[in-house]
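User: what does the whole thing look like in 3D?
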Amino acid sequence: MVDSAERRDLLRFATAGSVDDGKSTLVGRLLYDTKSVLADQIEAVQRASVDKGLSTPDLSLLVDGLRAEREQGITIDVAYRYFGTPKREFVLADTPGHVQYTRNTVTGASTAELAVLLVDARYGVVEQTRRHAAVLALLRVPRLVLAVNKIDLVDFDGAVFNAIAKDFAGLARALGYAEDRIVTIPVSALLGDNVVEASANTPWYSGPTLLDHLESVPVTSPEIDAPLRMPVQYVIRPRTPEHPDYRGYAGQVAAGTVRKGQRVLVLPEELSSTVEAIDTADGELSHAGVGRSVTVLLTDDIDIPRGSMIVAADSPPTLTDEIEATLCWLAEKPLRPGARLLLKHGTRTTQAIVGALHDRLDTDTLTRTEPESLQINDIGRVTIRTADRLPVDDYADNRATGAFLLIDPPTGNTLAAGLVGNPLVVTELS
Amino acid sequence: MTATLNAPTTDTSFDALDVLESEAIHIFREVAGEFDRPVILFSGGKDSTLLVHLAAKAFAPAPIPFSLLHVDTGHNYQEVIDFRDQLVEKLGLRLVVAHVQDWIDDGRLTERPDGTRNPLQTVPLLDSIVEGRFDAVFGGGRRDEERARAKERIISLRDSFGRWDPRKQRPELWNLYNGRHAAGEHVRVFPISNWTELDVWRYIQREGIELPSVYFAHQRQVFRRDGMWMAEGPWGGPRKGETLELKSVRYRTVGDGSCTGAVESTATTLDEVIAEVTASRLTERGATRADDRMSEAAMEDRKREGYF
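Assistant: Here's the predicted 3D structure for the full assembly of 738 residues, as structure tokens:
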């Protein structure tokens, strides 16, 4: 049992894999073996498995939640799962592999500190694996795990595993991952080998089980050590007898640390000031790091609206109305040069015109082609002109201030995930 | 909750509960910044009480810039209604109550033969959203509650009929929420999407949040139905063959009395409740909600129709 007073941290991770790699089964296994599944859920799965004529419980039924998913036996949409161990709490974004794979993988990867990629041991690294890995690398997911699933179906053969691990190491290197950022694990999601319990069937493997790795991997992100960035969400002005002159800028620290007494710059206004106080409902803080929601008070009486950004004065982002960016196009409607759209960056939404399309990334060959438009699931580089100047960082340096959405003005639908710069540099492909 | 500018503390211990709290505060502030008329669905239950607590923290030392809405089935426990009204008064908030009984009285709704009013909440909810011209509706739904909810976005679009279409959900990327909607549409917002039942209880304990007494063990006359302990009340029961017994029980969820069961419990303190939740082998909805047992996709079907 977990001591309720114990302080634990939280790891957000995503899973990705192609159809029939057994991803839902792996997630079901992880939940089941960490005792995150309760008796009534197991009974429901057992009942449904019997109804489907299966002899063993189908653990994928634990996660496929929508009527259409159960009817078709596939996962359609990203699902979020929660489990905890005495060491850590986990938020898992389970991303389906086939329908709209870019959309789902981008969604899951955008908040992940680690991704588990699945392959079938009988087939190894396939086209779909390369596509997923390219999207994960593009989105700058800091760490990858390759789970070589169905290892029982190749008779727990260490040579098969080693060949796949070598293949994957080459792919990860080409996509810019350092060796210590990837781990390859032989598993059987169906039987449980090396998911939570170390397997006796893989004596040639001395690495961690999947759960061991998830529990012990350091939670890292480049934003922690980056210069301060805090988009202003809301201006708090109580105008009450107790607080007649209170004016606080509410926001969540997106990168770096805000400190009392720090010199800051407010963009795009280009106003300088000093942090007078970092306030919360529980009292003042001397400093606040990435992810913390705070209210910043400044020494100067300046007027800052929602949409502005408070940044480190000694290391400001680029203030620009012309952005070179990489887009993951997520909509049925294709993107053509000249399109007039809305762009949401931080807490600011502004008008945008898409200029030239420079290239499209072929995720199978990792080469670039010249496109006339971007279609659904395409990844391409473009120039975008914006009505307001925006304080942007390269996505490669800062996922918080290097990210934006493109929105369709008439419907309000999200059309694309935007990344400032060119976060995916393919060095070589073995 | 209005305390501010007190003694400085340090930022060395940012744990899982702090992460969840900061995420929820971020969501409240985004909605306050982007919508004209947000409203919090507030029943006095533990999840919506948590929402109000988080909203107060998000805007302190200013008051919460939203009003509250409760769709009251008329089958609620008096303790919970009293608690609801006391909290509203204490925080100086505005509460609109939509009584399901009014819709039944004027014929817009018909009482169901089984007596449960839980599914009847959808129409008064949608009518109240239109009448109040609310464009963002905060709910205490959590993704760990149910499989269909696991697929729900944090900011989730509803069409002008209030319907949820799981196949047309917008991708939700980074923490850049897209709340754009056409006139007549609205969004549902779930700031505690990523919390588990245990997170909720641990946070309630940490923050010293007060809850209605029904969440703690008490003596109550109950009868057995469908594997659950139901209380006697205007919603019907005990029927023939069902006998009342005095039991020490508590509620894990508080909903319409006709479909919410109590669990046998001796947990009278938060520590004991947390120990009980940790050791429980049943999910909170599976243990106590008849409405979710109706079919494999009961929640999905109700959500599609506009239920929260």
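In plain terms: Chain A is about 20% helix and 35% strand. Residues 376 and 398 of chain A are 26 Å apart (CA to CA).
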